[in-house]
Amino acid sequence: MENKGIKITDLTLRDGHQSLLATRMRTDDILKMVPGMDKAGFYSLEVWGGATFDVPTRFLNEDPWERLAKIKKMAPNTPLQMLLRGQNLVGYRHYPDDVVKEFIKHAAETGIDIFRIFDALNDERNFEPALSAIKECGKHAQLSISYSLTERKMGGPVYNLDYYIEKAVKFEKMGADSLCIKDMAGIISPDDAYTLVKALKKNIKIPINIHSHYTSGMASMAFLKAIEAGVDMIDCCIAPFALRTSHPAAEPFVAALSGTEYDTGIDLNQLFELDQQLEEIAPKYRDYMDHTKMSPIDTGVLKHQVPGGMISNLVSQLREANALDRIDEVYEELPKVRKELGYPPLVTPTSQIVGIQAVQNVLFGRYKVVSAQVKDYVYGLYGRPPRPIDPEVQKQVLKGYERGETPITCRPADIIEPELEKAKAEVKDITDDIGDILTYALYPTTGLRFLKWKYGKEVPPPETKAKTLEDIKREDDLIAKAKSGKLVEAGSVKAAGGFKHYKLYFGNNVVSLGVEQIGEDNGSEGYANAMAGQATKAVVEEDVSAARTEPEAVIDGTGVVAPMPGIIIKYEVKVGDAVKAGDNIVVLEAMKMAIDLPAPCDGIVKKLNFKDGDYVARDDVLAVIG
């Protein structure tokens, strides 16, 4: 019997928690898992790239470069792998060639052995600088085909078998060391997986990996058929971070293939130990799980084709915007927007581009609000879409666009000026570390804020603090008391009795407390009245919503209102400026997209209520025009 040993790349520490937990797993918890995973026998560990660069600097006050260096030190036996978005690196726009090359050089020096590169449009021109840099560093370049469909199965006018064979052959000739079929939405069917792998094996010689999400429930079946067709590698997660919008679990494949010609050689007992270890860590992150449905799979993905990470992001953003009840409308709008934008594969950043535009179309009317990234995409700054963009949409989106109203046809990065030296100059008073400089170059707003936290120039906000297992236990105890009736709900005790009423929010749970004031009115300590007559001491934190700036009533003017939660990137005007209706007033970052908010009327800017870098809530008045 010929030994065809299937190799497994483990995605737990990158795409696993990115898909299930909005990428919130912290470095300390990752490092607890690394030594055991290094012993298991995986082909590689994907631990970096994707959103694991943005989220730590934006939300966790953690340095992704330090995370990578620490992982490398603790995993000497297994190659480390990252996901690179081609010319987008780990961001959401195209970066100039000098930033791309320096990023790859520093990533290779810090610990990355295998670079999995994809382009959201499968435009091979966007691979060129990254591929060249990887080869110069002597590292492994795995080029990816972003798998997509326009029909229920492979075929039709865009994503047919010839399309994929043509791309694979082209990537091999460019110098790919291996090829990845990257099914980011979990839509590849078992028979299509077999057909595609079989055809690719006849046309290219480099090893082939298959990557899919479990969103539709087909991934394990597709992997098994791909294995039968001759695939060399599969992507999995260990069980606690597998399935749902994540990936197939490694354990069933290791067990099922054991003793066959496809035996993985992975230690199943070691995986069982890792499962238990991760189960002990996972409760810290339960608030990021999507609890809106009972079903562990979403068969609707076969229609809307939204990848796992984007589903969790859409749920999170719609919840923040108080519009989660409209998610079905967004799913209906997604295929319409995708068609109008030329059928791009739905993978970062085009998944965000299509997703945010679908959300905005539902909330504010079709193309009434358009992000800067959608404008850039339509102009051609992301590359060449598989099909032409709808001419009417193109005209509407590019009306008044600063670069022009006629799209480009060249390689996008050819018109982007170098930025690395400028980035060095702009942060020279904070740091000269190349990792820090690259962080700023990638994310000028949130990256700079992180660097100020890192070097003590600003105090990190309390929401960046890690939640502990002790915090989880306290939440569980409080919720259990509330459910058992041992806590009095707000309104059940008369205000005249000296009680103040608070609502406590824990993820999707809300507990109302009646708190009796004792001593001076310092607003921080009191007694919670228990139904049994026992007074239980409790510390009641001040309501977070009361501590932030509330939307101001617009008096003597017209407000420019935030359509959804986000961060102020910059104001385009100052107090006293004369503006006309439609002039851009402020750039708001929401759902990782930059949204231009225009003046609703002619007038004079009377007031700017926030400053650059501030978080704002939906309906906050950002500016007043009189």
TL;DR?
By secondary structure, the chain is of the alpha/beta class. The chain has an 8-stranded parallel barrel, surrounded by 6 helices. Strands 9-10-11-12 form a 4-stranded antiparallel sheet. A 4-stranded antiparallel sheet has the order 13-20-18-15, with no helix packed on it.
Features:
single chain, 626 residues, alpha/beta, eight-stranded parallel barrel, 37% helix
Percent helix, as a range, is 25-40%
Strand order, largest beta sheet: 1-2-3-4-5-6-7-8
Question: Helices and strands: which structural class?
Answer: alpha/beta
Total number of helices = 22
Radius of gyration, whole Å: 26 Å
On the 0-100 scale, what is the average pLDDT? 86
Q: State the end-to-end distance.
A: 81 Å
**Beta-strand proportion:** 15-25%
Q: Give the low-confidence spans.
A: 490-554
Q: Assign an overall shape.
A: globular
Biggest sheet record: 8 strands, parallel, barrel
| Number of E-type strands | 20
